[in-house]
Design goal:
homodimer; alpha/beta; TIM Barrel; 19 helices; 21 strands
Chain lengths: ~500, ~500
């Protein structure tokens, strides 16, 4: 190669020279922020232990009570109250794994939960969907599938979620379709609702079909997860207990998340709300570990505050951030993976939705979150999934993923020679140091428009949310489902047909 | 007091029971995030020293070159290049104060710069103003005064800023009116542009009139500040040098801020851009400390990246955040207060403007920023000040201020008794623990709307930016200037009249 052609090839790098950051497996190198000194953290832990020992937890599920009895807890059948000795809690915390893998259809989609690893999960659970074209409306299966597609498309989303409730599908067969959609449109680890054993068992059976597993192969690894919300204060209901039991028994993941809104279902002080959260989570973890020692569980928190004038929940508040710092400390105190959230109470995918989501995301990330749920698409306190908000959130998540990358700072990066090569008052656009790096140096944004005001005006003065509208449409239009063996797809459809014929499985409460 | 009336008074606390957080004096308790190991940080510092010793800085101002000569630097008059020995830099860093007070009209408005203290400064320097009613247009003195009023109104803004350029005022007398506006509408420490000695001396004279100071009283304390932008790479121009000289001589504050855009005026690597930033800042600091050892200076940074396709500057990028972490480390390495920024390239006060501003604000805050400039109202890469964006930013700044407050966690906050008093599945709305705290427990938002979708729709489906429009108007309508002695106000007006008659002072370049 001549000197000249060498230079040319440096200045016009091949198409392959694109930025190479692996969003699929992220570690969070940021220093964790505490809300409490070590002794006050221990005081919160001890007070939570007093709550479950002295005050007790009401457990509505009989089988769960028998497990608690088996573990050595004091159970009053008449009142359904369960009192758990601190020694029992200490013992179950020994068996719960601090880090584990939840498996996807292919190894690249496996996700490690715990340690310094961080996984982002799309919006979970809203009954409504909204987009700029059609506004807010009831979710349908098509909407569910659309969000699954977006979640599969972006590497920075690591786990599928229940996302929008497909209200056009009958309750007794809805789970069959949401699970099939996750399995056929995505290779990522996925979600099953805990709405009674029959639904859960259907989900497990479909997982075995899709992943090609025997029952014992299935139970040896984690493939799917559920979220368990306690009925704060101090109550575990029938399907939630059943979910913990079924998932633990099968070696699948329970994310045990008290929804402790300070001033409503929890004390008005954030440390008090965290005491209640911790007590309820420890009770759920005790159940899981009693059913199967070593069952994968995630310490969940969703502590925020309410508007004391209206009782409305609020998210992304300073109280939320401080609670997130504290919740992360509590999770590390008991050496479990921690689930947090990115959330907002805003009714529109507007500026409020962004600053509240960003505040809660930063709070969770600096708290050391391992599993950040609702990280893309959440709106209106969780009642609505927004297509545009999903795209806006992806931009922030990708920014976080980039911030997590180590900043190379060897001597070549310090650029003394480059600085020498440019005269005072000059510029670095054309210098060798720039030319050899310019295609891969910086993150390329998804939504952000950095053009000047005139160019932006000429292209229609679109806001970020308006631009996001075009982005999700393009992705859905071009989406191609990951490969699935036609025999497996057929088997899944046959399973759905059979279970539908049998009447499906209505949700239990 | 009877038991009954006691309870009543508890349940209906007096109007005085409002949240009591002092936004006027904030300390940042968050752990600082690093971008570099200690040895790479030292390598950046050493490389910057090599840049100013071996490569040199071009200094266009003759008086500045003579000061550098006096300090012991090697000066080539023909090329205007100044080469500074590392020993000189080490010596001037000894004399620069790591923490100092900049004084307001009253003691409550004094601001400490340095240490763990954090000060927020409103938008500085844009030629344009925008609001939802009238769109983007040239700034006028009325706009300048409006932003001064908003900055005076909110305690979370600590320092006035140049804000919008009043383009309806002739250049030779513009400084008289912007300075008079800051002095008459606000009690906070304020800003003077470095556009040549005559303007600066006018500003100093007006400060002495407004604050009632003799020349020597004025020079004993810091009352005002200027921002010095180097002409990166490696150049200090005439008015910038003059600003450093004039401010240092008078004991006033220079914020020495290289504008090092990686890939344009600085190396494309963030560590390389920081090397250049550090070299230029150290040169400016050397000048200030040579003029007057102990002169208050702030280590400024504004390192970000550009869009390599268009050359447009970008803000709130992952690169910006990593550079902010590193810049904070460099400021602590030389033990000086650090100036950072909250910034965005967005053309509208939309979702992009919020996520970019939030990313840059979190980057600066976790980097340990002492003086966060452009913290409210910045838009379009600094070309426009937005009235609505100002309000949105205040919401975030107040949220940060609340996050900075220590979270009380004594035994009463852990709320064991409250948890005991509420049955499983019940709620905490009415319990004593809640009732005694509910009026002051939580931050009350400025813009956020937490009402449900129906209520929000009925009230017009306003976005946060639309609501912000009503908020700034109400504040301006109700604004009352702080008291000023009529004699002082008269003297200021007389000074302006006299200087105007004399022809004012056109900006120098």
């Amino acid at each position: 190669m001549t000197r000249r052609s060498k230079r040319r090839s440096r200045m016009r790098p091949s198409a392959a020279s694109t930025r190479d950051v692996n969003y699929s497996a992220l570690k969070n190198p940021l220093i964790r922020q505490p809300s409490f000194s070590q002794d006050r953290l221990e005081a919160i832990h001890q007070t939570a232990l007093r709550v479950i020992e002295e005050l007790g937890i009401r457990v509505l599920n009989e089988e769960a009570r028998s497990y608690f009895k088996q573990a050595g807890a004091t159970v009053h059948e008449a009142t359904q109250m369960v009192h758990i000795d601190p020694a029992i809690v200490a013992q179950v915390l020994e068996s719960a794994p601090s880090e584990f893998v939840i498996h996807g259809a292919v190894e690249e989609k496996n996700v490690i939960l715990g340690g310094d690893n961080i996984a982002f999960v799309s919006v979970g659970g809203p009954p409504y969907i909204s987009d700029l074209d059609r506004g807010k409306r009831n979710g349908t299966l098509e909407d569910t599938r659309n969000i699954i597609k977006l979640s599969q498309h972006f590497d920075v989303i690591h786990l599928q979620s229940p996302n929008v409730e497909p209200q056009d599908i009958a309750l007794n067969i809805r789970h069959l379709h949401t699970i099939e959609s996750q399995l056929s449109l995505s290779q990522k680890p996925f979600f099953i609702f805990s709405r009674g054993s029959p639904q859960v068992q259907d989900g497990f059976a479909m997982t075995r079909i899709a992943r090609g597993l025997s029952e014992s192969e299935f139970e040896q690894k984690a493939w799917c997860y559920t979220v368990i919300n306690t009925n704060s204060p101090r109550q575990l209901d029938i399907p939630m207990c059943q979910g913990i039991i079924d998932f633990a028994r099968a070696g699948q993941v329970s994310v045990i998340t008290p929804f402790t809104l300070a001033g409503a279902m929890a004390p008005i002080t954030m440390p008090g709300a965290l005491v209640l959260q911790h007590a309820e989570a420890l009770a759920g973890i005790t159940l899981a570990q009693t059913v199967r020692p070593g069952a994968p569980v995630v310490y969940g928190s969703f502590t925020s505050n309410v508007d004391m004038k209206s009782g409305s929940p609020a998210f992304g508040t300073p109280e939320f951030v401080q609670a997130a710092f504290g919740a992360g400390q509590l999770a590390r105190h008991i050496n479990l993976p921690w689930r947090g959230s990115a959330a907002t109470a805003s009714n529109a995918p507007d500026e409020q939705s962004v600053y509240e989501t960003m505040m809660s995301a930063w709070g969770s990330i600096l708290g050391g979150v391992n599993m950040m749920i609702h990280a893309a698409g959440w709106l209106e306190g969780g009642l609505t999934a927004s297509m545009e908000k999903f795209i806006l959130d992806i931009e922030s998540l990708q920014t976080f993923a980039e911030i997590f990358q180590p900043l190379k700072s060897d001597d070549a990066e310090l650029a003394f020679d480059a600085i020498e090569s440019v005269d005072p008052g000059g510029h670095f656009f054309g210098c060798e140091h720039t030319m050899s790096r310019y295609q891969t140096a910086f993150y390329q944004p998804l939504v952000s428009d950095w053009s000047n005001f005139d160019a932006w005006t000429e292209s229609g003065s679109l806001t970020a949310t308006q631009r996001a509208n075009g982005i999700w449409k393009k992705i859905l239009k071009e989406f191609e489902p990951p490969p699935m063996d036609p025999g497996v797809a057929e088997e899944l459809q046959a399973f759905i047909a059979k279970r539908t014929e049998e009447g499906g499985a209505p949700p239990e409460s």
